């Protein structure tokens, strides 16, 4: 066995720390989605905007904390986010980035070192991985995980509050549950307001403008078993829709599923 | 205007303290149900049993805290409950009592001074008045209050855990709500485990063995508006059903709606 093969075999068994995983990402050793990596640590959605768009976006997040729970915001032009991770550099530490011009996806890249500018501001928003981990730890089933697919997401008719050039109806994710589990999920998720918090709707999808639960607008459909209620959470795709509509000249995001892995334990996001 | 008429007119406007109301009850000046009295203070369901039945009933409460949330238990033979109220005497301080022999209602009385025995033990269980007050304070509508009727209650097929001679399926109360209000109600009631806590079921009544939501087993039917979900809470009628089935030789309870008014602020029952 070569030294490299030994290293690879060994690396399969290693649970990397967030800092170690970010280093691997930085050096091109890890280039795929981060689901299931660094369990117990917060992963974040990333939005990078020019300074003259950042104030509106910040206000949009503050007015709509359920779909846009802001975990951190950088200084203007500073690629570091020390409050989220030791040596964390937003230009290199995400596996894949998407670059949008005027709301149009232009390219997908492995780092943004050559795209960085002194006027860019980074926003990190909480994601559902954190609360899914808390639900699983309590013994609840999460159907999209059981079925090995992306969570189903739907456009709704629930309006977000408008902030400058940003507006959108809320996008929600859906996890089917028995009523007793849905009640337990409300309790657990209420502890985590910065990763979307409690569900926004339970039951009849048509009451929030969803007309076909079997055809999600994003992600994959999942089975809903007899006696289960669909349980809907505000979803981090909402700000992406708002960004597509607002069409800023430049916007950089993570690629779906390829999140920013932080040093924050999920438990630090619990308000109690 | 006579002195007595002046007193009566004045008394209509007085908000009695719990201690004052208990004194009025003790002296026969207040003989009806306590709903809406002494707002902000805990009212309790009362069960009085001989010592040789008390251990089983205590264990039934401990095994089934949702329908039987125990707030206080007296010493054997002691009619006072100092932890619930200054000078509170369980023999005189409830407007009406019911006396059961072998599970059969024998009489309704205004005090139990002549029925008291040295082997009796008093149990006080939390009641829904406390959480209804918290829901109203948050701006939620409670349909049975809006419609001026008793809350509808239903027998279910949710088994309680058996304790000695006590067993029962759970009885639940129902309040219809829009989904967002139901989610908020879960959050609020979770803070109050000793007054039944979070709902036990939301949605399809047949899943918990209720076949006709318009025909409650106890209390009155209420309107369910379009788009509302029935929300079900564990109910304090459950231990009454268990007592009827167990048929202890003697059991004394409050009359429905004529509760024990305590000195405990409702807020003291909040776990956070």
UniProtKB/TrEMBL annotation, chains A, B:
<keyword id="KW-0456">Lyase</keyword>
<dbReference type="InterPro" id="IPR038021">
    <property type="entry name" value="Putative_hydro-lyase"/>
</dbReference>
<dbReference type="InterPro" id="IPR016938">
    <property type="entry name" value="UPF0317"/>
</dbReference>
<dbReference type="GO" id="GO:0016829">
    <property type="term" value="F:lyase activity"/>
</dbReference>
<comment type="similarity">
    <text>Belongs to the D-glutamate cyclase family.</text>
</comment>
<dbReference type="InterPro" id="IPR009906">
    <property type="entry name" value="D-Glu_cyclase"/>
</dbReference>
<dbReference type="Pfam" id="PF07286">
    <property type="entry name" value="D-Glu_cyclase"/>
</dbReference>
<protein>
    <recommendedName>
        <fullName>Putative hydro-lyase Q8A57_00980</fullName>
        <ecNumber>4.2.1.-</ecNumber>
    </recommendedName>
</protein>
